[in-house]
Amino acid sequence: MIRKPDIVARYILKWVLPDFDSYYLQGDYEEEFNDIYERKGALSAHLWFWYLVLESLPGFISRSVNRSLNMIKNYLKITIRTIFKNKGFSFINIAGLSLSMSVCLMIIVFVKHETSSDNFHENKDRIFRIYTTDNDIQYSEIKGWATTPEPLGSQLLADYGGIEDVVQIRRLWSANVLHEKTAFPVDGFLTGPSFFNLFSYNLSTGNPETALKEPNTIILSQEMADKFFLGIDPVGKTITLETFGEFRVTGVLENMKVKSHFEFDFLISLSTASSLEARQIFSPAITSWSNVYNYYTYILLVDQEYAETLAADLPGLESRVFTNEQNERLGFGIQHLLDINLGINLGSFMPGTKHSFEIIFIPFVAFLIILLACFNYIILSIARALKRTREIGLRKVVGSVRSQIVILFLSEAFIITIASLVGACLIMLILVPVFNQMELIVYANSQINLELLRDPSIYAVFLIFAIAVSLIAGLYPAMYLSSFRPVNALQGVSRVKGTSSFRTRKFMMVTQFMVSIVAIIVITFISKQYRYMLTYDKGIEIENKVNIRLGDVKSETLKSMVLTNSDVHGVSVCSNIPIHGAWGRTYLKNMDMAEPLLIAYFSADPDFLENFGLELAAGRNFSDEYSTDKTHGIILNEKALEVFELGTPDEALDKHVYSNKNKQYNIIGIVKDFNYRNLENPIEAMAIRYSPETWEYATISYAPGKKAEIRNYLGELWEELDPVHRIDCSFYDDMEREQSDFIQGVLAIASWGTGLIILIALLGLLGMTMYSMELRLKEVGIRKVMGASVQRIVYMLSRDSLKLIMIAGIIGCPLAWFISGAFLQIFAFRTELSFWIFPLAFLFITFLALMTIGTQTLKAASSDIVNTLREE
Amino acid sequence: MEYLSRQEEMVLLTVHRLKEESSLVEIRRFLNNRTDKRWSMSSVYIPLDRLRNSGLLTTTTGNPTPKRGGRAKKFYHLTEKGIKELLRVKKVQQTMWDGLRDLSAGSLND
């Protein structure tokens, strides 16, 4: 009977024994084990074996730690010497890596900020949200609704013992605080007292248990309390919300600087909802099971594990509460509190929630930039280390194993990345304030919060990132350089020049320049498209115009008063703001169609066409002289004639179109096609009707250059017309500027990125040239002795790099063509992809590269022959 | 030339005595039986390895046995150099002992 010691002990023993005799010694130990087993039994044998193993461990560990400490000390020394010996290369590496790493650090801080959302809740592990899935949603990117039916809350609490508490939240849309006869827009929720059982918001004054119990009570944010009750205690006072009524303040929230997936200014007691329903401000049907758009349902579980049980039982719940028909369409899902922000994309989401798809592209960009910088490191360290072949050969001869050389080169990469990390942190501190002030960033609410840097855990992330970078950058050179055979390595560079590393290097340089060229071309096209959109003749005049939301003000009143101002050239009224606003839709069909078509629709007054400079192709404008215009008149655009097959504009006049309820409209005029929405969208069939009941905006044209006067004038005028509401006016040139600011913001960020990519590529090229000049200095000397001219030598030295850039261009141009083409597909009205941009981008890059190479090649070509030939 | 340590000397002698049977396990068993001391595996292996490195011993490989987990056995043999060294140690010892009275026979006071 043959017995074996424990596998663990055997494994440790194998690890501890010297490599040299390990095989025989393991045999000896097992033989002895078997002997003891036979003589004294299992226990003694195992005890003996384990004792043996454990006894040898301390010595072994201390020996190996000691050895590796010495090793690390040695590597560190060698690395620092190498860094200082090759100052140029080290600088290029550290500069390139710092720049690109700083961008990545910013992204890490940003993402960390977003993912830290909701971490402050004490019960965060046990809080879940129920959401509704909906098969009827047309948009594939939306996976469901963040909201649920209202009765779900009490149903959950009644059906499941594992649910400790439920809170439902309802958003109060378009609320305005009336304060000193002015309306201030605010955003908040209706919710119950259990809100505070789930979420760790604190009240600075007020009792969280009772504050949200009674109807018409409100809790204010600190900010709101300061705004409306400065210097006095708001508790017990009343605050008026327009249309919703008066609310008694029962508490003020502590101002906690925390990130949550929902943001609000106030909380109103949910018990208010029934009175609002009674007053018909809320529609009562909202509390039915089929209405899923209003109530957010959060649950607190007794135990986190219970979530699985609950998730498994949701289909059962669905069949209990929904009718069969509803159940085919609707279902429930459960998500953890911490998975809500940056989680799946749900409709009717909470204000303040970001979805993962909105930021998913950012890590890709970061990865691209860091990869290109790593390419630099790889290219340079292979090039540079070819000069170290003798060192590597000697190391191997005196007994280094391959893994030790790999570790040596990896530790070099690591030290360089750590140095770059420090540099990157400094660059980030400079970049972030600049970045945060960019309008686009402010607009997208994506500022980078540097307060996170006080949290030590972020540095751990930085460090992990740096280690990852050093692995990406250092692994290939380390593997390649440690693969040299000592015999060849000792004979010098010429014997180890592996073709594989040449190919890798070329591939990396080509990639860098290719990405640069693609980025330049794509950005050029974006800005070309942007300029195209600015100058495109939309067929509608929107210069020097301002839109005012009418609200309760009568359009006639406004019109007659505004027209008394001599700066005002015209006023028209419309249901929507053309180009920058939404547009209505209506169903229309011609006589022969069975199904009506959904087309764009505006309702306007007779001044609309003239005010916007729109031209009629045929027919006439609306007029009050014809009493039927308001009831049956319609103006179509040329596109609509095509769609409804009504022939030429003249032929179409006096023909009819029909609504989906077969109401007949007379075509009284045909307006020439114009862009009624922004240039991303094509011009489609559109109809204009003269129906005053849907008018919402007045558009006033004013004398050029009088914007400020008009703004003041309208402000004063509005005070008279509607003292309660604030004026809601939007100048077309403001909206245009906002849009162009956005595009310019995108362009600015993209240009910075491209600049960075080009800079990294050029740094790499510079390092590569420096290296090859060093190698070829003697060749240059000999060529000069033989009579070569400086130009000839510069050409010879630049040829290789130029060839690579050429290849980059050849691959990059079609790629850029493809990407730009795909980008321009977004726009219905797009600029041409012009060919001249391709050679231009290529020439630009070549020029930059030549400038970079030139500094080095010229130096080499004009160097003193006597010195170069004498070197050695 | 350095002298052998006591340990090395005893190991070397055991190898000599065990002839064809001189594997690590056998050497250790012999030493355990003949001396008062308990010899651990490593206290036998380390001198053996040292002696092999300095050329006093050579090794041959035996057949694998199931008892050893299917591994082969390593046997140690004296080399010429090893034999000379043993002889030299013996000679030195004898010269050192020569002419002294038998310790076990009388008291130290003589």
Task: Give an account of the 3D structure.
The complex is a heterodimer of chains A (872) and B (110). By secondary structure, chain A is of the alpha+beta class. Chain A folds into four domains: 7-84, no CATH class; 124-340, no CATH class; 361-532 and 740-870, no CATH class; 545-737, no CATH class. Chain A is 53% helix and 15% strand. In chain A, a hairpin with a 7-residue loop joins β13 (584-589) and β14. By secondary structure, chain B is mainly alpha-helical. Chain B has one domain (6-93): Winged helix-like DNA-binding domain superfamily/Winged helix DNA-binding domain (Arc Repressor Mutant, subunit A). Helix content of chain B is 50%, strand content 9%. Chain B has a two-stranded antiparallel sheet with strand order 1-2. In chain B, α2 (24-34) crosses α3. The model of chain B has no long low-confidence stretch (mean pLDDT 83). Classes of the chains: A alpha+beta (872), B mainly alpha (110). Chain A binds chain B through residues 2, 4, 21, 23-32, 34-35, 52, 56, and chain B through 23-25, 28, 40-42, 45, 49, 61, 64-69, 71-74.
Largest sheet of chain B: 2 strands, antiparallel
Strand content of chain B: 5-15%
**Helical coverage of chain A, percent range:** 40-55%
- Radius of gyration of chain A, in Å, reads 37 Å
Mean pLDDT of chain A: 84
- Unreliable stretches of chain B: none
CATH topology descriptor of chain B: Arc Repressor Mutant, subunit A
Succession of helices and strands of chain B: HHHEEH
Shape of chain B: globular
Which strand order do you get reading across the main beta sheet of chain B?
1-2
Note the main sheet of chain A: 6 strands, mixed, barrel
| Number of continuous helical runs of chain A | 29
Strand composition percent of chain A: 15-25%
Tell me the number of strands of chain A: 21
State the end-to-end CA separation of chain B: 36 Å
What is the overall shape of chain A? globular
- How many structural domains can be distinguished in the coordinates of chain B? 1
Arithmetic mean pLDDT of chain B: 83
Tell me the name of the CATH class of chain B.
Mainly Alpha
Q: N- to C-terminal separation of chain A?
A: 72 Å
